[in-house]
Amino acid sequence: MQTKEQKSEYQKEYRKRNKEKIAESIKEYRIRNKEKIAEYEKNRIINREWLIEYRKKYYNLNKEKICKKAKENYKLNAEIRNEKSKEYRKQNKEQISKNRKEYVELNKKRLTELNKKYRVINKEKYRIKNMEYRRDARNNLSNGYIKSVLFYTHGFTIEQLKEHPELIETERIIIKTKRLCKTLQN
Q1: pLDDT number for residue 130
Q2: How far apart are CA 138 and CA 175, in angstroms?
Q3: Which own/partner pairs from 31-40 qualify as long-range (CB within 8 Å, at least 24 positions apart)?
Q4: What is the DSSP letter of 142?
Q5: Is there a contact between 161 and 150 (Cβ–Cβ < 8 Å)?
Q6: Residue 1 pLDDT grade (very low, low, confident, very high; cuts 50, 70, 90)
Q7: Full-prediction pTM beyond 0.85?
Q8: Burial class (CB in 10 A: 0-12, 13-18, 19+), 150
Q9: Where are the beta strands (DSSP E) in 56-178?
Q10: In the 8-state DSSP scheme, what is residue 141?
């Protein structure tokens, strides 16, 4: 005697192995029973309100059971869901970026408010991230770090730095040599 889980596993395996066969049998059934299916659809449309009410009552009576089952399915299918969303994002990059831009344009105020609230709640997290970002910029001698050094310590203006990008490169070389000298002394 098989348990319920074993039967469902067997059925899943069967469906995987016989996809074409099942699809063909469904097509044949629909061809043979066109009138029956049409009548069912007609009754479903007519009894739509009754069906909605019935589903609401069922949901209210079995709310905990339904929610529990949904959570279990959500956890079980996390990997599959992630893979599918990755594939979708790869295939529809332009559409997704277009939709995001439109959403940001339409909801700028709301998004700024949400960001402010999030920053207030997660102040420590942002402080740590900012420290790490600055440390990485300092260690890797990023353009932003070198521009800030030139701006604050040497008194160059932003316009001057834009006109003479070679200043950034020379300052980078100077800082590297100073760092090398310090490490050699120690």
Answers
A1: 93
A2: 10
A3: none
A4: -
A5: yes
A6: low
A7: no
A8: buried
A9: none
A10: T
The arithmetic mean of pLDDT across residues 57-62, rounded, is: 92
Tokens representing 133 are 């970002």
- Residues 174, 153: contact at Cβ < 8 Å? no
The residue whose two tokens read 């070389």 is 173
171 in Cβ contact with 146 (< 8 Å): yes
CB 168 within 8 A of CB 161: yes
Contacts of 22 (CB under 8 A, 6+ apart): 15
Q: What is the pLDDT of residues 76-133, one digit of tens each?
A: 899 999 999 999 999 999 999 999 999 999 999 999 999 999 999 999 999 999 999 9
User: Which residue is listed with tokens 């277009």?
Assistant: 98
d(CA 54, CA 16): 33
Residue partners of 59: CB distance under 8 A and separation at least 6: 66
Q: State how far the Cα of 110 lies from the Cα of 121, in Å rounded to an integer.
A: 17
Calculate mean pLDDT across residues 7-32.
89
**First-to-last C-alpha distance (Å) of the chain:** 77
Provide the sign of the torsion angle of the four alpha carbons 166, 169, 173, 179, taken in this order.
positive
Which among 140, 136, 135 has a CA at the least distance from the CA of 175? 140
Residue 3 C-alpha from the chain's centroid = 37
The Cα–Cα gap between 71 and 87 comes to 23
